[in-house]
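Good day; I would like, with your permission, to put a structural problem before you. I would ask you to consider whether the tokens describe a fold that such a sequence might reasonably adopt. The full record is reproduced below for your convenience:
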Amino acid sequence: GQRFPFTFPIPGSAADKTLNYAQYEPLTYSPGYSIHNRLPYAEHMNLSIQRELSQSTVLTLAYVGTQGHRLISQYDANPGSPAICNQLNAQGATPTCTSGGESVTYTLPNGSLVYGTRTNLPAPAFAGFNTVTANIANSNYNAGEITVERKAADVTFLAAYTFSKAIDNSSGFGDLVNFSNYRLSRGLSASDVTHNFVASYTWAVPFDRALSRLPKRLTQGWSISGITRLATGFPINISQSGDVSLYGTEGVDVPDLVGPVTIQNARNPGPNGPNTYFLPDAFATGPTGAFGNSNRRFFHGPGFVNTDIGASKRIPITETMAIDLRGEFFNIFNHTQFNNPDGNFSSGLFGVVTSARDPRIGQVSARFVW
């Protein structure tokens, strides 16, 4: 029959405890939103000292910090119960309760039915994995910065080095927080970069002074510019699929950390094949019916070593018209820059790099200006 429209019970009403979910069926996913949410906020701190090194060069030393509070994230509101799963198996229920069996209907020897292992009523067992959006995340960022900047007619450059650390328990809305203990999800932010050096530079090439006998139209208007970056890679997200914990929560299971992580050149082979960045023997499968002890992000992937170079020439035609010619190379030294390896312990490629960032790319362009 017609089920809509219908009126939801008021949050906190006694009717919620006896709500008949049959009027909502079929139901597979029903996310919620916490009624206790408050406005997120952040605290920003900055202290800098500048020193003039010359008339055109300035040195800056700075501290930058940010604390984020009440950040929006999600957690599983309807997890399965490993204890119920073990109890069903002890009672001889069919089928056998195992990984992924949170929403299965079990038959006991006496013929009675048990509708899964999810017990967070009033949410029904058949609703499966469900999330609640809540202000449960926080973040912490601290950085020391050194900057040298020169502004002059011939050579201009900006060189900046940052030493920083970013920690949180959720780096984005889809980054689920462990429902049992939010602190279990605390680790390096997905965007954490420990060391980051970036230099940008422009040189107005003085061909007109070195080759003064040649026509000015040929020798003037040359410039070379570039950007060089040397940086730590992003943290590797460690996980374990297969519902080893028996909670049925997506993206929260992690393996056990049983030893130090060995990092090697990603060009080398390893136990799981070629292009291995870290050896998998530092990890073991998490315990059945519980979460592993590994932090989900605690070491970094392959870093960045990249230089982009461009050369340009302006050819004046009249006082109001000119042609700009430009040639550019991205990653001019063609340095292989690997993406992060597979961090899923259940994968056959655990610790293996399967892709890289762009190789050397060149392009030329011409622009008419009037």
Notes: Helices lie at 82-90, 207-210, 216-219. The CA atoms of residues 330 and 361 lie 5 Å apart.
